[in-house]
Structure prediction request, 273 residues.
Amino acid sequence: MNIVLLNEAVKKTKALLPDTAPTTAVILGSGWGCVVSTFSEIHSIPYAKVPCLGSTQVKGHEGRLIVAEHNGSQIMFFQGRRHWYEGAGWEPVALPILLCAELGVSTLILTNAAGGIRSDLNTGSLMVIDDHINAMGVNPLQGSHDPLLGPRFPDQTRVYNEKVRQSIDRSAQTLNIPLTHGIYAAVCGPTYETPAEVNALRLMGADAVGMSTVPEAILANAIGLNVAAISCITNYAAGIARETLSHEDVITNTHNAQPAMTALFRQLLPSIT
Ligand code: HPA
Prediction:
């Protein structure tokens, strides 16, 4: 990770966001972009104008950095994310997290689309991530160490903040939105898994699988942000159902869950900002 380049990019991005002091930030993954629609936007910047971030290359990821206001608090939304498999290095993945730290954000909520491995996870289920398995074979903190990225060997006993997870539970209960908890395994992608890989992940203890979130959670936890993450289960992981997997189905299935996602965040964000 080129920390000099990232530092410059963070400073330049901060200059694009005058009068911005968000306490909470949300990274919206595949199909989650709708969540922004119910908040009043103060700033909206296309990713292409944000140094280091660049344009998302994935359908379903809008690519806008938004600052919104709600009940007197500011929330920063990253509408779409960059992935390691896009081949642009760790900088586009890390920029949002370092920007959060620079702007004084204390809580970061990550969202994603994931394949369900555990038998009770159906299409449209929302799952709070309690812990993760990094099956990517890489780690964003590899390389020379910079104190800006936290300790050399960050503790990961509690990556996902318990209080924020409880707030998510309370919001879902208030709205009668079914919500489950589980372990998320991250793989590199861009291929979906083979059925044998899904079976191996299940034996390792994974409930769901996806191609994102864990690098951001590792970095955000290392630099001291309160992290939480929610998956929308968009398909049965490979080999669990008879169907083959496609990104189009992933997008369609997140559409079905959008009313629940939007309502959940509208309830949750004021309670934690
Ligand atoms: N595997 C990996 N990533 C995913 C999946 C999946 O089944 N569904 C959505 N993102």
Remarks:
- The two ends are 30 Å apart (CA to CA).
- The longest helix spans residues 247-272.
- DSSP finds six helices and nine strands in the chain.
